[in-house]
Amino acid sequence: MQDRENAGQVTVWGKGGKTRTVLLSQETWAELRALKGEAALDAPVFPSRKGKGHLDQSQVHRIVQAAAVRAGIEAPVSPHWLRHAHASHALDRGAPIHLVQATLGHASVATTAKYLHARPEDSSARYLGV
């Protein structure tokens, strides 16, 4: 975690062993800082209860599934489902495709374009900048 002017940024290690830097709003940054308490900036935000270090993939999957049950979501969910939802909603709300590409860590904009959904009233050209 790194403090920035009124907000912050975190480094995320994710899918494919890639690292990404994610800029956070002031509100989200404040929430994460509160969660960390007095822990060092380089300490995991969500440490594992099984010992030192971060949550592993199976722990995150169980947490997401438990949250879905508490929220009354009956459809199958996973961390990747949340990733897909983020990309789809960001693009649906007009986020530039290159920005969504960067947040997802895609090497190719063609991979990110798979998150575009056919909408009769919209043209995918709007997202691709053509």
State the helicity in percent bands: 40-55%
How many helical elements?
6
Instruction: Tell me what portion of residues adopts beta-strand conformation.
Output: 5-15%
Number of strands: 3
Order of helices and strands: EEEHHHHHH
Name the average pLDDT: 80
Arrangement of strands in the largest sheet: 1-2-3
Structural class: alpha+beta
Structural overview:
This protein is of the alpha+beta class and 130 residues long. The protein has 2 domains: 1-46, no CATH class; 77-130, no CATH class. The protein is built from 6 helices and 3 strands; from the N terminus they run βββαααααα. It has a 3-stranded antiparallel sheet. It is globular and about 40 Å long. The N and C termini lie far apart (36 Å).
What's the short story on this structure?
The protein has 130 residues and is an alpha+beta fold.
Features:
three-stranded antiparallel beta sheet; 130 residues; globular; 6 helices; alpha+beta
SSE topology:
Layout lengths: L1 E3 L2 E7 L5 E6 L1 H11 L20 H14 L8 H14 L4 H8 L4 H5 L11 H4 L2
Antiparallel strand pairs: 1-2, 2-3
